[in-house]
Design brief:
CATH architecture of the largest domain: Distorted Sandwich
Strand order of the largest sheet: 11-18-19-20-21-28-25-24-23
Number of domains: 2
Shape: globular
Distance between the termini: 41 Å
CATH class of the largest domain: Mainly Beta
Radius of gyration: 22 Å
């Protein structure tokens, strides 16, 4: 399968109606940043360029080279809210870009490097990529002994970039799985379409490399509550209205939201609402999850985690800037080496934990517990498979990689 290309209409606007301005993006760390995501808000660009009308787009150039841009309408009101692009920065580098508004999008042949999809099974065929969907109440996992194809392609939303992919079960399990990739192509519209071809076996593009079981899998969410002096984890997805909404779909960044409305996590508790905004962009081995809680004034603790099925311990890292946990070893379903990690800025961190096999609902999970003091959180989940990059077979290399990634996460580029 050849990589998908998007041809964005291009032309260079005359200065008669679009004045060139400059923006400066600085790398604040002594770390190289490859495929760094640069996010420019509409407010920032209007401060540079003046009022930008609904029908105008942005052009950005590095020297004479146009950047591949993506205009994202985050709130779906018909006006784009952010412009994003990728750029490589050397250590401490300061880069000047020229920017202007135009009446047509910039014309660049763009390789699709990020994608999200959610498709329903209609008559044993998977339909179009849905923008919105609502999960049936307390939807149960697919019984593959009774049906060959699930109600959703690969059982729920899937997202990928040119390095790695993930999926979320659109049922009461509400956990995340991992697609190990050996190609930069976007493949998740095809994996799982043919029931005679198992994505649990190595294919030319890769495979499903994680066994999830009763765990939180690859960075799934749960509530951490206290009952009779003991901690208990409650899985999101039950006793709530669960919905999916696609926000952006490449070529630079893919983004979607999972909303859990009026989540009744305990019989006598006030319902809460939780939103996950999950994003992935080209060149990275992680997805980012921005979590928001509303509707309850009492402290509610959020937990995320990673599976322990083949390894009996995780490594924890705490610095002044971030907290991280990771596992590394023979833990892929291909019986080879996989590094898994979670990184959160230190202001969101509460503690590390473990959900054993004795847990009632959630088990086999090393947890990173987030602070109840916040109503908003962000973290990144990493999946580094040796078949994607053989260097990940080395534990020391993976730990160094994760520490470097965490430093970059906590020291984002400065935009002026």
């Amino acid at each position: 399968m050849k990589p998908l290309l998007i041809l964005l209409t291009t032309f260079l606007c005359s200065n008669a109606y679009a004045q060139l301005k400059t923006i400066t993006v600085s790398n604040p760390s002594e770390l190289e940043r490859k495929d760094e995501l640069v996010v420019l808000t509409r407010d920032f660009l209007e401060a540079k360029l003046g009022n930008i009308t609904k029908d105008q787009f942005i052009h950005i150039f590095h020297g004479n080279a146009p950047k591949v841009l993506q205009h994202d309408d985050l709130d779906k009101d018909g006006n784009w809210d952010e412009v994003v692009f990728l750029h490589d920065f050397s250590a401490g580098e300061k880069v000047v870009f020229t920017v202007q508004a135009a009446r047509r999008p910039a014309a660049v042949k763009a390789l699709v490097r990020a994608h999200v999809r959610h498709k329903r099974n209609v008559g044993n065929r998977f339909g179009e990529n849905l923008e919105k969907d609502v999960m049936p109440h307390n939807n149960q996992p697919t019984d593959f002994t009774r049906q060959k194809l699930p109600p959703y392609l690969t059982e729920g939303p899937a997202w990928e970039n040119d390095k790695v992919g993930f999926r979320k079960y659109f049922d009461v399990r509400n956990t995340n799985d991992i697609w190990g990739k050996t190609t930069s192509d976007m493949v998740l519209d095809y994996a799982g379409v043919d029931p005679e071809k198992s994505y649990h076996e190595l294919d030319t593009w890769g495979m499903d490399i994680l066994k999830v079981g009763k765990s939180l899998g690859a960075g799934g969410l749960a509530l951490r509550i206290h009952i009779n002096g003991k901690d208990s984890l409650v899985r999101l997805g039950t006793n709530a209205e669960v919905s999916y909404r696609r926000i952006a779909d490449g070529p630079v960044r893919a983004m979607f939201e999972m909303a859990y409305k009026d989540f009744k996590y305990l019989p006598n508790a006030q319902p809460i609402s939780i939103t996950e905004r999950i994003s992935i962009w080209g060149g990275q081995f992680f997805y980012q999850n921005d979590v928001t809680i509303s509707g309850n004034n009492s402290p509610v603790e959020i937990t995320t985690g990673t599976i322990d099925l083949y390894l009996d311990k995780a490594a924890n890292i705490i610095t002044k800037k971030y907290a991280a946990l990771y596992t590394h070893g023979k833990q892929s379903e291909n019986k080879d080496t996989l590094g898994l990690g979670i990184v959160a800025p230190i202001q969101y961190f509460h503690s590390f934990g473990y959900a054993s096999t004795q847990s009632r609902d959630i088990a086999n999970t090393f947890t990173l517990n987030l602070s109840a003091a916040s109503k908003k959180y962000t973290y990144r989940y990493y999946a580094a498979w040796e078949k994607t990059d053989k260097r990940f077979s080395d534990k020391n290399y993976f730990e160094k990689f994760l520490r470097t990634e965490a430093e970059k996460f906590c020291n984002k580029p400065v935009i002026e």
